[in-house]
Amino acid sequence: MPKAGNGFCFSLCADDYALSPAVSLGIREALTARRLSATSVMTTMAGWHREAHDLRPFHPEAEIGLHLNLTSGTPLGAMPCFAPTGRLPPIGRLIKAAYGRTLPEAEIRAEISRQIDAFIDSFGAAPDYIDGHQHVQALPGIRLWLLETLAEKGLTGKLWLRDSGDSLSRIIMRGGELSKALMVAGFARGFARMAAAHGFACNEGFAGFSAFAPDENYGQAFAHFLTAPGKRHLIMCHPGHCDEELAALDPVTTSREKELAFLLSDDFLRLLDQRKARLSRLAIIRN
């Protein structure tokens, strides 16, 4: 594992690129300032093809991944059972169906394939990694269909996958949004083992759960994210600017601007220096 003095290296990933033009603009600002090491894109969004062009100059210095989306906006193809109205279901309904084993396998497999293809078609390369909007990649059923789809496309071992879980001890030591971290760790249990069995590496250590509250002290929250890092530590974040498209699609709005402001600030750099932490692409961080 690369060292930062006696400290550690970690990956900082901005989720939701292409969710709206303002979100994408904010993420590119953070990439330009070298305050991120990765960003995950939503290929289901109407602006993805245009936004892909503006993202290419940041690669490969930053890793660019697919943010698998099964809960926001519209799918890339018809899903008459899963999304009969043309709109993807909310996360609560998806979790219930996943654990109830009532997900339409063929439809979801096809949508996973379409989203991967849309990434490659617009970006001109396969994603460096895959994660999921609201952590859908880790849900029962979906995780296996994702792994098998990647194998069918010849991508085994050629990218890494986000494990949205972490050990109980690290979650408790880190504090912050404990209920969210514990809930996601619960439905991500076994994901890394399954991924490894299919030939894919994962991060080891995961943080970034936020209250998304306008009055949250994000700098203080970020200090928690750096606590008890794993050997291949990954922190998610959600920076960006707000616009009408974002407000129509997602409840997380003004907190994105606070996250962006912190990442671009000297306070962010001072915190990394205090913790002896350094940004790195996850693919080059070794156990």
Structure description:
It is a single chain. The chain is α/β, with parallel strands linked by helices and 287 residues long. The protein has one domain: TIM Barrel (Alpha-Beta Barrel). Helix 1 runs parallel beside helix 11 and helix 2 packs across helix 4. The N terminus is likely disordered.
Overall shape: globular
**Class based on secondary structure composition and strand pairing:** alpha/beta
The total beta strand count reads 8
* Largest pleated sheet: 8 strands, parallel
Strand content: 5-15%
Spatial gap, N to C terminus: 5 Å
CATH class: Alpha Beta
Number of domains: 1
Percent in helix:
40-55%
Compute the CA-based radius of gyration: 18 Å
- Report the CATH superfamily: Glycoside hydrolase/deacetylase
Order of helices and strands: EHEHEHHEHEHHHEHEHHHE
Please give the CATH architecture: Alpha-Beta Barrel
Per the CATH scheme, the topology name is: TIM Barrel
Please count the helical segments: 12
Mean pLDDT: 95
Uncertain spans? 1-5
InterPro entries: Glyco_hydro/deAcase_b/a-brl, YdjC-like
GO molecular function: deacetylase activity; hydrolase activity; metal ion binding
Pfam family, one: YdjC
GO biological process, one term: carbohydrate metabolic process
